[in-house]
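Handout, section 3.2

Students often ask what a structure token actually looks like in practice. Rather than define it abstractly, here is a full record for Phosphatidylinositol specific phospholipase C X domain containing 1. The first block is the sequence as you would receive it.
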Amino acid sequence: MGGQVSASNSFSRLHCRNANEDWMSALCPRLWDVPLHHLSIPGSHDTMTYCLNKKSPISHEESRLLQLLNKALP
């Protein structure tokens, strides 16, 4: 798995971009009819972070600097 390494040790962007475009075709046949939201998909735990915006609250667990900046820069 992964991209092919060229002579300059950089990953082939074309290969990496298309490496997983058909990942569902490799699923075990008994999973074909399972709704996508019932599957545990590795690496998908942060998929909803795209909805963050300027009005999203800053967690109290974040650094004091980040909390102060949030108050100073509305």
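Discussion prompt for tutorial groups: The radius of gyration is 20 Å. How would you have guessed this from the sequence alone?
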